[in-house]
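Tutorial sheet, problem 5. The two components below are modelled jointly, 606 residues in total.
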Amino acid sequence: MPSPYPRLFILLLPVMILFGAFFLIPMVQLALAGASGPQGLAAYASILTTPRHTQSMIATLLLAVSVTATALIVSTIAGLFLARHRFPGRSVLLALLTFPLAFPGVVVGFLIILLAGRQGVVGDVSRMLTGEKLVFAYSLAGLFVGYLYFSIPRVILTIMAAAEKLDGALLEAARSLGASTWQVTRDIILPALRPGLIASGAICFATAMGAFGTAFALATNIDVLPMTIYTEFTLNANVAGAASLSLVLGLVTWIALFIARSLSGATTAAAA
Amino acid sequence: MTSSTTTSITITSCAKTFADGTRALEPLDLSIQAGETLVLLGPSGCGKTTLLRIIAGLEAPDRGGRVLFGEEDVTHLPIERRNVGMVFQSYALFPNMTVWDNVAYGLKVRRMDKAAMKQRVEEMLAMMHIDALADRRIDQLSGGQRQRVALARAIAARPRVLLLDEPLTALDAGLRDRLRGEIDALLRSLGITAVYVTHDQAEAMVLGDRIVVMSAGRIAQIGTPRDIYHAPANAFVADFIGTTNRLRHKDATLVFRPEDADLVPPGEGMAQGIIQVVHFLGDRQRVHLHTDDGEAVIVEIGSRRRVAPGQRSGIAVRPEGMVHLSGNAEESAA
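Model answer (structure tokens):
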């Protein structure tokens, strides 16, 4: 019998070429670039040693965590409601809810400016009501709203898919044992949704960590990590700093996705 | 603490029309005595599950229907406040909990104190012979073990009424017979009012103090297993429970069961026919005949007699074995 390895090698060759050309080589270059500055390898510690970089990292993490938490709460409630109720206009509502997925980050940023910018709706209304013009588009608050806007549909779709797979008899069994609506939700529904919540939460977190378009559209002085990388690279010509920050950002996001994947894998295996 | 007093159930003019206009249940009245096991038997779509769900509080009857547990009107109480135990065909065990936690769930929800809860759960696990499985996850259990856990969970909080929705349907034949016997013993020892839904007549016969045969959203007959089998109210009940033969004889239709007929030498008996098929069942033989008038008849005979397809034979029916339909014998099955 001929060895299967030569064939396997030929079949894997295309993906290996792609992996090498577009992933491995740039990554190595990026890693080298990070260490090529006047500080050498110490550039990798700049996330801790340069106060501006540390602040940027903390702000980005806080933003990503709060967007993820808010998106999960809002979408779980909405997703469960949509999965369990049939009403006129439901399919239209579903189509509208997934609409934000079609927009790139720059467009979302533009929408936030229309909403809460200097000429925005929120500003007009608040001036009429209080005399003060409320403008929050060009800050972390604007970014928070923008990220929430395109995170919610993703989570809703995941939650709905999980909720529709949920065995109705489980809920009836829990109720027959005397469980209130809240107890059924806590003890039966949320554990069943856990893998979906973890998976979509990880996607939200990763997106919020790395999204650039929205931040760029809103203002160049929002201090989130992707913007810091951009400024270091273009304005300060600090290639080494930008490269080291990029790797740190990539690593944090990758770890979050990895943890989420192993957690949700373990729980789906347990539920199967 | 919840009391374990069992209760009677009274259902008055309960009908059920679903949102799409389907009438699942015609208005019906039914009373179930305290401690009785009542079996709802019928083909799928006959309304038996809908009736069970109305008793459980999972469905509301149409306006005008009332459900009473003893003296208490529970029509508007949701299931979580009716204090019923329920066993589902799919078991519906919580996959995120161990066997122990499943059985304890109803007690936890009722905030029973820890020591009493531990004692009760252990008692239930022992009663269902699953004490060794306490720490297992649900996906590590066989079908029979799952159903035992489901039963233990349903009776742990000492419900007023136990409701069972085709609990044995998903199991294979041998296990089904064993668990059927165990459920029977359990219901007798608990003395609990139980409503048991099934489409399996053997299950209905073994378990039911009384059987309600249902058809097309109506009650076709209520009676003891003996009444239902030997004095079916109409052709539907006669045909649904056991096998019935119909034979035209001197301007009348004779209705009888295969075990009440016998093969006799040709020329004797009330009809003549040719043996088509013989099924040897071990304890008896089932013989299919075609009569000279072109009717199909099934006769059961002892397992040691020698008969073969192609033989001519007479068919005799024991006089006491005639089934008298209380309704119109010619009425077609609904």
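Marking note: Residues 101 and 153 of chain A are 7 Å apart (CA to CA). Full credit if you identified this.
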